[in-house]
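<given_protein>
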Amino acid sequence: MTPRQPADTSALAALSQAERAALLGDLLAEHPELAGDAERLANRRLAGADRHAVADDVSWSLGSLELEQLNLHAGYQRGRGYVHPVEAASELLEEALQPYLDDIGRLAGLGLPAAAQEVAAGVLLGLYQYRDQPPEDTVMVEAPDFPVEAAGQVMDALNSVGVNPPDGVEELLPDWSNLLHRG
């Protein structure tokens, strides 16, 4: 006896993200007349960046790096020698932050500076919550200066693509007002 699928289950709904991406490519290859609509929808999705959602993502990405992960990267590393825990922590945190910095450049490159500003504001908000007290038992404990250093990287990312800092972010990050106005 073959198991029956529920009537409300569709193959489209069951696709993974990778399968959906491939399907979109197949659909556009078969129906190139849909490319304009797909481009418009892609721009709308990218332009809809939400600083609070980004802040939550950044906070989770950085705060979820546990000390056990640090232990795998610090100490003697084959082919590299001794890696200090602070250096290893900074590398792990930078790796977690890099996709957000890449998004700033990607959005600016697509002519969406407001979306790039929203992502930057979200990253800054996510970092700001760790400025004083990093969560215990996380990699952040070993790199307490990371939030302010990373905030500088965000400002550099904006500057490198010719996008101004987000409006109003100084009020949200009062302890970092000097950093936000550096040239």
Observations:
- The CA atoms of residues 40 and 54 lie 22 Å apart.
- The radius of gyration is 21 Å.
- The mean pLDDT is 85.
